[in-house]
Amino acid sequence: xxxxxxxxxxxVVTVLxxxxxxxxxxxxxxxxxxxxxxxxxxxxxxxxMATHSEYSHLGMVFEKEDELFVYEAVQPVQIVxxxxxxxxxxxxxxxxxxxxxxxxxxxxxxxEKMEKIAKSHxxxxxxxxxxxxxxxMYCSEYVWKIYKRxxxxxxxxxxxxxxxxxxxKTVKRIMKERYGSNIPYKEKMISPxxxxxxxxxxxxx
Length: 205
Known about the structure:
Low-confidence stretches: 1-24
Order of helices and strands: HEHEEEHEHHHEHEHE
Structural class: alpha+beta
Shape: globular
Helix content: 40-55%
Radius of gyration: 19 Å
């Protein structure tokens, strides 16, 4: 009985500690942070397979009046509170990355510019074809363009569609559904995985 009581006590302490750590982690986040997750959308697995990355979705964190929000390109491009964003991901798991020299680059003036750019795309449709125009937006394109246009930095290297791994049946099937026989192999794209692996970023959580 004594051993069982000790086990229960240890379990409660572990759970409370985990909850406390999660709260602390969110408290560490800042405007401009990138938050990556594995989405539950139908295209998540094909994206993971084509990019060889665990992450299929990302958004950009912004703090407003001590509350954290995320700008993201879903359907439509929107801003949501961070807990809604996190809970929508697979298992509620996420990783946050930050510009290594964020304190120097992301000044109040630059952050204001970033938010202005982010707001200019709100309400646009999600781009299931991953085109590089601004008429519609997909998640990594949205965040990449915000950073590029506000700071001049390229978070992740652009690649042509043909440079990704298109060999699996799953990827081929969804490409056939979306493009038919006119697959835009030369279309410039940026993936969540390439942004995640950018040398300009460091992990926060």
